[in-house]
Amino acid sequence: MQRLVSRLSPSVVRLNRAVPSTSILNSSSLPPPALTTDTKRNFTWMPKNARPVSSTPPLPPPTSPPTSSPTSESEDVYPGAISRCQWEGAGPFDSYNLPQHTYLPSHSRKKRVLVLCTGGTLTMAPDSTKDGGLAPVEGALTEWMSNMRELQQDEMPEIKVHEYSPLLDSSDMGPCNWARIAVDISKNYLYFDGFVVLTGTDTMAYTASALSFMLENLGKPVIFTGSQIPLCEAYNDARRNLIMSLIFASRDTVNEVGVFFHDRLLRANRSTKINTDRLLAFDSPNMEPLANIGITIDENEHLFLPQPKGRLRVHSEMDTRLMTVRLVPGFDDSVIKYAVENPDTNMKALVLQLYGAGNMPSNKSSFIQVLEAAREREILVVATTQCLTGSVMLGHYAVGHALKEAGVVSAYDMTVEATCCKLAYLFGREDLTPYEVKRLMGVSLRGEMTMDSQSSSPPFTEKIAGMTFTQNRGRKV
Ligand SMILES: NC(=O)C[C@H](N)C(=O)O
Predict the structure, then answer these.
(1) Which positions bind substrate (predicted)?
(2) pLDDT at 216
(3) Hey, what's the torsion of the CAs at 45, 51, 55, 56, to 10 degrees?
């Protein structure tokens, strides 16, 4: 464990007001969605260790392939997405507005962090037209941040803020917004040392998990945060969540997508929202936090993902034709049968939230028949658990054995959020066959599952007085 003591001392921070210039497009006035070959391409960028470090001016952003990202609203379609993205992209923030010293060697320059703001409580204030309910206030974040003296400390990074328009409650976000964020990070990848994504807490674990899969070979920190109380309130959790996220987004050692909340940095695809009203709103039930914050910052460096060897690749497509079902004892499951057997649903995957270690009632042969029908239709059935902590162990109990027989795949100790986003990402990749998707569900791609949790029966050593002694060989993540 490494102790990092962060001193905060005064200086000046450049804040560029970046409220999007274009107005909100009304999706009903747009032409119907059409798949363009452009949106099917992935983008590659140099990894961090290959970025320019001399005073040589940075190369202008290449015109291809990154510009194969959607350039106008009419092209802004992501297959499998629930709705069309109304957002304008963020940049790229190219050389014309970069200060001269930006590409000096890293020891002689301030870190640069791009803040991508999607909305959420952090940006909200009571809206009198909605009975005082909280709603995002466009442009306010940029204003509030420019008045925060804490951000002007010497050791804080230079910050550029981009607010998407419209700002959203995170319940209104989905795969098209995730794709926009991923593409914007890739477009600005060379110009910033790290990224902070501000988003609402309700679906943050999904967005952050999705981004962890979309950004392959990520070599810089992408830190998600938000708050339970708006930044505009006198007492709030927004201020410190924002400050700490900016600090972690400036760390050279973080090469992954994280969620910073309250006093912990969590791996994004391990995080889940656990509380509606407490400030400790997120947890990472199956993995230690990447860092804990008290009066010092304690980093669990052994858990950090290593610097990637390849170039950043952005996979912005998500195939969302999947369904999650949480079992409830004795409930009618004919609706699942209908969804699986009806060819119109075109379902790709069925995520089951089972009891305990991956169990279902043994007296429900009709349900097993549904799973067999799913297999015939090449629908991948994935087993997760309703428990917050621990791993699925298919076949550990006799009642779960039938699932294994029916070709159900274990999600091991992945969160439901990570399981769904991983499936959508893998099915969104055109280079993978259904067999490869199935195989990769059992492989840790971005540290989303604990490798030791993959043995379907625990590593028993011996039993004494009815107690099982388990050999703990350390957990790989
Ligand atoms: N705390 C929050 O941010 C909740 C809000 N409803 C959102 O997810 O946008």
Answers:
(1) 170, 201-202
(2) 97
(3) -40
CA nearest 421: which of 242, 275, 210? 210
Contact 351, 425 (CB under 8 A): no
CA 227 to ligand 1 center in whole angstroms: 8
For ligand 1, atom 7, which residue shows the shortest CA distance? 200
Taking the centre of ligand 1 as the mean of its atom positions, its distance from the CA of residue 432, in whole angstroms, is 35
- The backbone torsions φ and ψ at residue 357, rounded to the nearest 5 degrees and listed phi first, read -80, 10
Residue 201 labelled as part of a binding site? yes
Averaged over successive runs of 10 residues, the pLDDT of the chain (477 residues) comes to 40 30 27 29 31 32 34 37 64 52 52 96 92 91 90 92 95 96 96 97 98 98 98 96 97 97 98 97 97 94 95 96 94 89 92 94 85 94 97 85 90 98 97 96 96 54 58 49
Q: What's the pLDDT at 183?
A: 95
Architecture of domain 2-314: 3-Layer(aba) Sandwich (3.40)
Q: What is the pLDDT of residue 60?
A: 36
| Binding site membership of 120 for ligand 1 (Cβ less than 6 Å) | yes
Alpha carbon distance, N-terminus to C-terminus of the chain: 16
How many angstroms separate the alpha carbon of residue 120 from the centre of ligand 1? 5
Question: Which pLDDT score, from 0 to 100, does residue 247 have?
Answer: 96
Enter the DSSP assignment of 321: -
ipTM field: 0.98
- Is the CB of 209 within 6 Å of ligand 1? no
pLDDT of residue 404: 87
The full set of domain ranges for the chain reads 2-314, 322-470
DSSP letter assigned to residue 57: P
Q: What is the pLDDT of residue 453?
A: 56
Separation of CA 169 and ligand 1 centre (Å): 6
- Taken in order 273, 216, 117, 103, the sign of the CA dihedral is positive
Judge if the beta carbon of residue 228 lies within 6 A of ligand 1. yes
Annotation marks residue 253 as catalytic:
no
CATH tag, 322-470: 3.40.50.40
Please give the Cα distance from 297 to 6 (Å, whole number): 7
Atom number of ligand 1 nearest to Cα 122: 3
Residue 226 in contact with ligand 1 by CB distance below 6 A? yes
pLDDT of 114 reads 95
Establish whether domains 2-314 and 322-470 are of one fold.
yes
- Residue 168 is predicted with a pLDDT of 96
Q: What SS3 class is residue 45? A: strand
